[in-house]
């Protein structure tokens, strides 16, 4: 492993730049990309000096909120590796381990679900990746479909991006051929409600975040899940929720609806930045509702309702397609 001082310097850069970058979600995610790329370069240079040059072209990619460019101030690790030629798994798992350790020391919590490039599940040759994705879809369990949805949010960060892009294009075509979209929908139907039937905000009732709103589950995920489903339906490869909404045809959502959905999703991201707890990765998902003005509470409630509307739109379109075929 590279000495901790080198990764510590990257973390010091992160800590110094973070207050400035938190002004907008674009600046913040640009900073995250910059930090992660610095870490990957340092890790790769060290690993090559120890293990030799890569035996195959490869791509290191990110998923989750990093893949969608929707990270908060704190972020955990969600990443993988795809390499072109087989027989190189040991090398790339070692590289994945060095990058994972480097990101951890630079301030990125390890993924509790082990969605990281040091896990054989997320580090494979192009051929093995293709086979695994088909196995996930054919198994159609909650866990394997969740893996598939996670992969769909991936984007290249380092290396040969074409390897990932080709695999994602093939995956989208395969989902359509196998008519898997309704199964993907089933995996995203549960929504943690953030607003009650009387229009009240439904905050946590106990625990360390009592009185706070879970912005990830109640606010952002209805938009994220709906936009992902609709993007797959229309062969859109963009990974960000905003980008997916922008590229949807007007026959699916009108320009006026698109503007409303985008405005409210962007507003939720901004509220999370402004009023999130931000002590660590977990606390960054929670909004301090009592800190909001009356106007901000009204905006929050409208954004929560609008997210449910978008999610319902996606559900109806996918279920209609399941009954009548793609229209």
TrEMBL record:
Domain DUF294 positions: 179-315
Residue ranges annotated for the Protein-PII uridylyltransferase N-terminal domain, each copy included: 20-139
InterPro entries the UniProt entry points to: DUF294_put_nucleoTrafse_sb-bd, GlnD_Uridyltrans_N
Sample GO molecular function, one term: [protein-PII] uridylyltransferase activity
Domain of life assignment: Bacteria
Any one Pfam family match given in the protein's UniProt record, by short name: DUF294
Protein name listed in UniProt: CBS domain-containing protein
Organism: Mesobacillus campisalis
Upper taxonomic lineage: Bacteria, Bacillati, Bacillota, Bacilli, Bacillales
